[in-house]
Prior knowledge:
The protein is built from eleven helices and eight strands. By secondary structure, it is α/β, with parallel strands linked by helices. It has a single domain (9-243), classed as Alpha-Beta Barrel (TIM Barrel). α1 (23-33) links the parallel β1 (14-17) and β2. α1 packs parallel to α3 (52-61), α4 (75-85) runs parallel beside α5 (101-118) and α7 packs parallel to α8. The longest helix is centred in the middle third of the chain and has 18 residues, at 101-118. The chain is globular and about 45 Å long. The structure holds orotidine-5'-monophosphate (OMP). Orotidine-5'-monophosphate binds at residues 17, 19, 41, 43, 68, 70, 94, 128, 131-132, 169, 191-192, 201, 203, 221-225.
Amino acid sequence: MPAPEVPAEAGQRILVALDVDERERALTLARELRGEVGGFKIGMRLFFRHGPRMVEELAGVGGRLFLDLKLHDIPETVAQGVRALVGLGAHIINVHAAGGLVMMRAAAEAARTEAARAGVPAPKLVAVTVLTSLEQENLSRELGFGDDLESVVLAWAGLAKAAGLDGVVSSPLELTALRAALGPDFLLITPGIRPAGAQLQDQKRVMTPAQAVRAGADYLVIGRPITAAPDPVAAARAIVRELPASEAG
Ligand SMILES: O=C(O)c1cc(=O)[nH]c(=O)n1[C@@H]1O[C@H](COP(=O)(O)O)[C@@H](O)[C@H]1O
């Protein structure tokens, strides 16, 4: 039976991180998974090898496309970087919240004005907060943060909202607090997703797909549990089956 073109509702929440080296492999994965999940993420691994053209090619496959380059620099540099990315076809672009309020404001303004100038829909702009590969000890002992991790995530997310961004990327562990603080319309995207019993690899702050949806995630970013599986379509289907249908959509 051929895969349906439009995935079941619960699957719409999943964005598959296409962290592979080869252009053909990325496109094949995207085409095979298109009917199972809501979309795809292109990050530095594919982008640095294949460039903006890869974003355009993946946009052509369909589904939501998240361009994850975690822009973090002075405001003008990030604003010009965002301008160069708007129009490639990505629906979501991220910057790093650690760049601060003025940087995020400049990025949001650049996304809006460039989209209007080019006559394309403005992408959602979201801010990465504390990476899911870090835990409290990394923040306090290595990086010198005085605050607890959840407070840092909440503070950075508050800045992102004040700057006019559409949402944040966080670990699933902060979703409940973020949703309560930032309201129903702020986009909450979470990597750090591992089905029960799966290898954590370099992820530290994780939940299962079902737990993350129940905690309020709009999108789950899932990479290796799907892309490194012997049968990525079967792996995606197994994850979608785990999701609470009534809360998805
Ligand atoms: O911005 C991201 O997407 C991101 C932020 C974060 O805090 N943690 C994180 O894992 N990611 C990305 O999410 C994906 C997770 O992949 P897996 O660990 O293979 O499921 C990778 O592409 C990461 O680059």
